[in-house]
Write a structure and sequence with these properties.
- The chain has 2 domains: about 130 residues, Enolase-like, N-terminal domain (Enolase-like, domain 1), CATH 3.30.390; about 210 residues, Alpha-Beta Barrel (TIM Barrel), CATH 3.20.20.
- The model has no long low-confidence stretch (mean pLDDT about 95).
- It is globular and about 60 Å long.
- Helix 1 packs across helix 3, helix 2 packs antiparallel against helix 3 and helix 9 runs parallel beside helix 10.
- Strands 4, 5, 6, 7, 8, 9, 10 and 12 form an 8-stranded mixed β-sheet that branches. A 4-stranded antiparallel β-sheet has the order 3-2-1-11.
- It has about 375 residues and is α/β, with parallel strands linked by helices.
- The chain contains 12 helices and 12 strands.
- The site of magnesium ion has 5 residues, from loops.
Length: about 375
């Protein structure tokens, strides 16, 4: 980039969604709104880049971290090398922790810088990353937790009817898990436990998961960083996915070593720069990245662009719910189980001004 950054701004959005369920407890309280933190960077030439920092239930804190920790590392500067800037910023803020809100904030700014740089170069994100451009990528339907076998069967069947080749459940009990396979034909099935089980409970579920030919078991146990137990579960015959709660390339090397399906989340892990490093580590180790991407703004677009660095088997996570609105104009939707990749320039994210005005939340 040749022009200095003039401003870094955050916009908090809270967009309601419907999923046909009862808001069963993955999150700290009932989950029926997407909270997100948009990051808008403008340079001295008036060019604008957009990013997204993870904001579920924590958007006020994340926006504050962008404003107070990360923005001063960017404003007034010319950023020529975004990964080098990212690493320097990690060092500058490390005393606030290497996980969580500080790195979420870094992620949002990193994404916005990549968007800005790619736009300045007239390239799509895939081109800016030096990856292979793809017209579309395969997606899976990521169902919310219903806790009800009938609802699981209804929505799993609906997703397969719509062309999704894979469906992921967020169920933790045997009956709802068992309800999906009979309605799914040959479609792939995954089960995400969000760290609900003990190691003993996970082992007790293995026969059921194998019987239903689960492609991967995601975050089965608490704490999420108990990689030794995840590796042990793989030795007992189930592929494991994990990583949405981990940040930085350093931490992810342990995940890449431990399990089959590392799951970096671009709005949490450190942004595009860090995701790219993890993609290289996974490729070198023969592991298949399955990105965590239940997003509805720039994080969604950034993940699609990052597929230029991923193998054919990688699947895009599409959260199977109905938001009241989409933050980006022309957000590409799944069609026959694939999601088109925007051609750019940049991420391809263009905010819908009406949606931003309507769903912006105050406070910062
Ligand atoms: Mg998950």
């Amino acid at each position: 980039m040749t022009a200095p950054v003039r401003s870094v701004d955050t916009i908090r959005l809270s967009i309601p969604f419907e999923d046909g369920g009862r808001g069963e407890g993955i999150t700290p309280s009932r989950w029926h709104r997407f909270d997100m933190v948009l990051v808008r960077i403008e340079d001295a030439d008036g060019m604008v880049g957009w990013g997204e920092a993870f904001g579920y239930f924590c958007s006020t804190a994340v926006a504050a971290a962008v404003d107070e920790l990360i923005a001063p590392q960017v404003t007034g500067r010319v950023i020529e090398d975004i990964p080098a800037w990212n690493l320097a910023t990690q060092k500058a803020i490390h005393l606030f922790g290497r996980y969580g809100i500080g790195i979420f904030a870094l992620s949002g700014v990193d994404i916005a810088l990549w968007d800005l740089q790619a736009k300045r170069e007239g390239k799509s994100l895939a081109e800016a990353l030096g990856g292979r451009s793809r017209a579309s990528v395969p997606a899976y339907a990521s169902l919310v937790r219903y806790g009800d076998p009938e609802l699981v069967a209804r929505y799993a069947a609906e997703a397969v009817m719509q062309g999704f080749g894979h469906v992921k459940l967020h169920e933790i009990a045997a009956q709802p898990i068992a309800a999906a396979r009979p309605v799914m034909g040959n479609a792939g099935l995954m089960v995400d436990v969000n760290c609900n089980w003990s190691v003993d409970e996970a082992q007790a579920m293995l026969p059921l998961l194998r019987q239903h030919e689960v492609l991967w078991l995601e975050e089965p146990v608490f704490p999420p960083e108990d990689y030794a137990s995840l590796a042990e579960l793989e030795r007992q015959g189930i592929a494991v996915g994990a990583g949405e709660n981990a940040c930085t390339q350093f931490e992810f090397r342990r995940i890449v070593d431990a399990i089959a399906y590392p799951q970096p989340s671009v709005t949490k892990v450190g942004g595009i720069s860090v995701f790219r490093e993890i993609a290289a580590d996974a490729a070198a180790s023969g592991k298949t990245i399955m990105p965590h991407s239940p997003y509805f703004g720039p994080g969604y677009f950034a993940t699609l662009g990052l597929f230029s660095l991923l193998p054919e088997e990688s699947l895009f996570e599409f959260l199977y719910v109905h938001p009241k609105a989409w933050a980006g104009r022309s957000t590409p939707m799944p069609d026959g189980g694939r999601v088109p990749v925007p051609a750019g320039p940049g991420l391809g994210f263009e905010p819908d001004a009406d949606v931003l005005a309507r769903y912006a939340t105050g406070g910062r």
